[in-house]
Each structure stands twice: as C-alpha cells, then as structure tokens.
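Researcher: Please translate sequence to structure tokens.
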Amino acid sequence: MEQRPADEPQLGAVLGGRRRALLCALGAALLLLLAACAACVARAWIPRNSEHPGTQPGSPLASRQKKLAYARLLARNALLENGTLSWHSHPRMTGVLLSENLSYNESQQELVVAKAGLYYVFLQLNLQPIRLYCEDQVWGQVSLTLNMQSPQAEPAEALVLTVDLFPWSLKANIVEGFQARIVKLDDGHRLSVRLSAGLSGHNKLHEFWELAQSKATVLGLFSVHPLIPADLFSMCSPCAGSAGVPL
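Model: Translation complete:
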C-alpha cells in the first residue's frame, strides 16, 4: 500500500490557509472599492425624488429601484442639544428619500431596516455660527454617534463623526464633517443618532453654533451590491473590521 508523506497534512493546511488569506484579501479589496464608489455617490447624493427622472411606473428600471433600500433623512432641529436627533422622513419633502423597505419610527427616532444585507451608511454634519464674535477664546466639539441595534446579534460598532470648533471657526459660513462605513445589517436593525456638544470656556454652545439650515445635517444609507456572498463578508470581517470597512 502506498504511504503518503507524513508532512502532507501540514502542507494541505498551509495551502488552505493561504487560499483563505487570498480570498480574504480579495474580499476586502472589493469592499474597499465599493466603499470608495459609494462615498462619491453619497457626497453628491441630493436627488429631488426617489425615482430617476423620466422613469415610468412599471418600467424595468422602476421595478429594480423598488428592490433597492435607501434613505436620506434631514435633521429636524437646529438647536445644539445633547440627545437623540429627530429626522424629517417624509419622502415628499425636498431632499428626503425613504424606500419602501425602510421605515422611520417617529416616537423612537429610529430608522428601521426591513431587509438584511450590506449597506453603506453615512453621516454628514453641517454647522453654522450664530454669533460672529466672542470675547472669550473658546474651543469645542460636536459629535454625531450612529448607534446600530440589532434584535438578532450584538450591536455593530457605532459610527462616530466629530467636528472640532476653534475660535477662528466663527468666521466660516459652514463648518462640516462627513463619516461613512459599509456595514452588514440584519432584519429589524434600528439606527439612531445621538448628538453631543461641548465648548471649553463656555457652557452654552448653542449660543454660538447651530445645525445649518442652508445645508442640512444628513443621516443616509443605501444597499450595496447584492451579489456579494454573506459568508465572504463574514470571513473577511476580521481583516476589514468587525463592523465593516471604515473609510
């Protein structure tokens, strides 16, 4: 009987490990490419309505759009108060998008995902000064924290966007920040955003700054390519980060 070399199992394990590493690298590269493309789309994403101009109801394009999940919500209040933000979610409002497979819970101030998958989630924070001059030299920060609660698994790592404010920032018309990530969301995932604001040297940040009205603060997401296997994402998540691929 033919005897196999004793080191053959070890060789198979090494080759298997290299194959897994290669798949992981390819998957991570694909997710990074998707993130880069999605970032370009999100930054320029200010559509007038939920359908492409000229799309006729019942057309193949309209049918495909109904399968997509996307949302673009605008902050309701301008006042900088610590707490959970409330959002404009009516799709008839200019600048607001909300597809049929997503919903907004007004009482809980949460965006609810109905279909599991990979999503590109993003926050855009825009601040405008109220007072253009202050006798004190003050610094501050405004942060948005996107919490993602799942009924089926541990919460995903929060997405945090922080904008630093300096004494000379009062001379700017708008101070803005942007943060995004690709993340795997489950059925029933609930997304909420908490605002935290603080100013060193002064305890009333809302006397100097507010959320801009001419350029809204945005919570948005949209589903990315549905053909990426979920097991590939799970396999590569230790390489790319447990909550997705940060930008």
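Researcher: Any highlights?
Model: The chain has three helices and 14 strands.
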